[in-house]
Specification:
332 residues, alpha+beta, Phosphorylase Kinase, domain 1, Aminoglycoside 3'-phosphotransferase, Chain: A, domain 2, 2 domains, two-stranded antiparallel sheet, binds adenosine-5'-diphosphate, binds magnesium ion
Length: 332
């Protein structure tokens, strides 16, 4: 962490009146916000510079939802209001948010069936509680998992690059992936409610096998529950995001769904039957987003230690997601 960053974090802590700052460290688990762990006034805080894809509406939604969740026994982080009462503070470097730090640790990947079951059970509690959320969410800056629009936009990008040297190595994917996704689109008419929007395992905190925190609610939105279930199973039950032999682990999926079913409201049978399809759909949706960024190189971060350029990393991820999708069973 640079001295300059430390100075900004201290200034933000001063604005939130957290008391004397005694320690600031950078947390590198999340990839979206710039996250700092702070000790101030004798207490532990999380101070985040919010990624510019999120705005004030999302900050208000998170503050309302986390309050409701805590009132109903779900350990969501408490957002600290700024002196003007708002759940954020705007300064030249962007929007900043402070939450109280919760105990526990997060995992980068699911280490055991017990952890999958506990995370599934917490996601189910989240869904059950948020089904009764009494307010409307404010519309955020972007719509989540609008798969038809994601594919349509990707098709336009692919056409723009058709005559470039980047095209031939991925001609097979461009020719098959968008059609495959469109054939898998979920039928209309599934019920919608508030979903988490980003149920990756790194957004859960654990002590032993108990969930002590459900984090990162910036993507909450109104959608079918299947997008959360599909996204959770995709990310919990695969191997690494760029593993060319990425395979779905049905044992972990069983454990996760056992946990989820124990706490969530029952799904109607036609939605129940669509869990496998939804998981494959979300996986291929991510594949097409990676493939688009293979051409454009502007959205996802990439790792220069392992790849010569962004395009190579994004292509490895796109192919890995297709491989993973091919191993997801229909009947989950
Ligand atoms: N209230 C909190 N208590 C404890 N740890 C937290 C809290 N908020 C965030 N973290 C830690 O910071 C990481 C990144 O925060 P998160 O809100 O998930 O941001 P990102 O969107 O960048 O993933 C989390 O994975 C977790 O390790
Ligand atoms: Mg996160």
């Amino acid at each position: 962490m640079s001295a300059l960053q430390g100075e900004v974090v201290e200034r933000v802590c001063g604005h939130f009146r957290l008391g004397e700052v005694t320690a600031v460290t950078r947390n590198r688990v999340g990839l979206i916000h710039a996250t700092f762990e702070v000790e101030a006034g004798g207490e532990a805080w999380i101070v985040q510079r919010i990624h510019p894809v999120f705005g004030e509406a999302e900050m208000e939604n998170v503050a309302m939802a986390t309050r409701f969740l805590r009132e109903h026994g779900v350990p969501a982080p408490e957002v600290v209001p700024a002196p003007d009462g708002k759940p954020f503070y705007r300064e030249p470097s962007g929007l900043w948010r402070v939450t109280k730090r919760l105990p526990g640790r997060s995992f980068p990947t699911v280490p055991s069936a017990g952890i999958a079951e506990a995370a599934g059970a917490m996601l189910g509690r989240f869904h059950r509680v948020m089904a009764r959320f009494p307010q409307n969410l404010r519309p955020g800056k972007r719509r989540l998992h609008d798969t038809a629009a994601i594919v349509a936009e990707a098709r336009e990008v692919f056409e723009r690059y058709r005559e470039t040297p980047k095209f031939p190595p991925v001609a097979d994917l461009v020719a098959t992936l968008p059609d495959r996704i469109e054939r898998l689109l979920l039928p209309g008419g599934f019920s919608v409610q508030i979903v988490h929007g980003d149920p990756k395992i790194s957004n859960f905190l654990f002590e032993e096998e108990e969930v002590t925190g459900l984090l990162d609610l910036d993507a909450i939105s109104t959608h079918t529950l299947l997008v959360d279930l599909g996204d959770a199973l995709r990310s919990w039950c695969g191997t690494h995001e760029d593993d060319p032999r990425n395979r779905f682990d049905p044992g972990l999926a069983d454990a996760a769904l056992r946990g989820w079913r124990a706490t969530a409201l029952p799904l109607p049978p036609e939605e129940q039957r669509a869990i496998g399809r939804a998981t494959r759909l979300i996986t291929l949706e991510l594949a097409v987003r990676f493939l688009r960024d293979y051409f454009e190189e502007r959205y996802f971060a990439w790792d220069p230690a392992r790849y010569p350029d962004a395009a190579a990393h994004h292509l490895a991820r796109a192919r890995s997601m297709v491989h993973l999708a091919d191993s997801i069973p229909d009947d989950l």
